[in-house]
Design brief:
81 residues, mainly alpha, two-stranded antiparallel ribbon, 40% helix
Length: 81
């Protein structure tokens, strides 16, 4: 696997490596709201009612390429799996 590369040259736009913590907190809040809705015999909440995906750490994705003033070595380093 030493020569494996990403199929599509895409990365997160900001410095965050992952949204794992954001997703974990959003699902935790959703489960808590669902438990309260079940206890009150109300309809369940939607995920957007509980958390906003625009508040997550990453801000979309961008395409990585040599045209972005990066050296070829930097592009190779970024596109490694």
């Amino acid at each position: 696997m030493s020569r494996s590369r990403r199929k599509t040259p895409m990365r997160g736009a900001l410095g965050a490596h992952s949204e794992k913590r954001d997703k974990r907190n959003a699902h935790k809040a959703l489960r808590q709201a669902e438990r309260l809705a079940i206890a009150r015999d109300e309809p369940g909440p939607r995920p957007r009612d509980v958390s906003d995906p625009w508040d997550f750490a990453k801000d979309g994705k961008i395409r990585i390429g040599v045209s972005q003033c990066l050296s070829t070595a930097d592009v190779r380093r970024i596109l490694k799996k």
